[in-house]
Amino acid sequence: MESTWIGSPNFTKGRKRVTHITLHVMGGYLAGTDATFKDPSVQASATYGIGADGTIHQYVSEQDTAWADSNSFSNSTGISIEHEGGIPKAQFTDACAEASAQLCAYISRRYNLGPLVHNGTIGNVYLHREIPGTDHPDCPDRAPNGIDVEQIITRANEILQGEDELSAKDIYDTRDQDGRNLFDHAHQILDDLPIQTRNALIETRGNDGRNVLDGVIQARNQIQTLQESVDQLTELVKQLQK
Ligand SMILES: [Zn+2]
Q1: Is residue 97 domain-shared with residue 197, that is, in the same domain?
Q2: Distance, CA 176 to ligand 1 centroid (Å)?
Q3: What is the pLDDT of residue 242?
Q4: Residue 167 pLDDT
Q5: Which of 114, 117, 147, 204 would you label with 141, given CA atoms 20 to 30 Å apart?
Q6: 118 and 216, same domain (yes or no)
Q7: Is 174 inside any structural domain?
Q8: Which positions ≥6 away from 115 have C-beta within 8 Å?
């Protein structure tokens, strides 16, 4: 996840365990937010801010408490994300939503938040306007060009779910430090086995009548064929684009 460190003097050192993400809208542009959070007299910050082109800026370390939610408990248990928009001239864009979804998924994975749920302050995604003590009744979704909360959550959950599904191609593409993939390793392990164990493995039969070795070789061949088709298609697309 690429983000640029901007920093802010407005934070409290340390934090409690992360249990949620709070979504905000800047009411302006990313550059203005950079300037605001750099100013110590403002007494405000957020962990992250995202621009209309999907650029992510970071103001406060995830290890520390940003001053974002108008509620110190929410600040100390959450990671806050500002989004460009919230005024008639500043758009909330698809690129911003995509970057936000990627960032939310990245946060959820690292703090074990699970699938993202917005349900007031019961779920793991809070909106600034819902937090007790807030003085921002429009943040983040009720201001002009406010953010699309559902778009971000739906996409983040898509990303989180996709990560759970490892495809055969993913396995084929894995590379160990020695440049070999898992299938190479499986073959090597079989090669290294004492001859009797190896024979026993070859003699085992699955429900389809194939032994373990056949299964590995067949899977490998299927994936190679698949990879060749992908390469051919990629080449075709390149030629068509010319
Ligand atoms: Zn806010």
Answers
A1: no
A2: 44
A3: 74
A4: 67
A5: 114
A6: no
A7: no
A8: 108, 157, 160, 161
CA of 127 to the centre of ligand 1 (A): 8
Residue 213 Cα, ligand 1 centroid: separation in angstroms? 58
Dihedral (CA of 27, 32, 38, 41) sign: negative
How far is the C-alpha of 168 from the C-alpha of 187, rounded, in Å? Answer: 16
- The total of structural domains in the chain comes to 2
If asked whether residues 58 and 106 sit together in one domain, one would say yes
Q: What is the 70 CA–ligand 1 centroid distance (Å)?
A: 8
- Cα–ligand 1 centroid distance for 66 (angstroms): 12
pLDDT, tens only, 112-167: 999 999 999 999 999 999 999 998 999 999 999 999 999 999 999 999 988 766 66
Tell me which residue range forms the domain holding 24: 4-164
On whether residue 175 sits in a domain, the answer given is no
CATH value at residue 21:
3.40.80.10
C-alpha 242 – ligand 1 centre gap (Å): 46
- Considering the domain architecture, whether residues 160 and 188 belong to the same structural domain is answered as no
Distance 135 CA to ligand 1 centre (A): 9
Sheet holding 48-50, edge to edge: 4-5, 56-58, 48-50, 78-83, 20-25, 125-127
CA of 108 to the centre of ligand 1 (A): 20
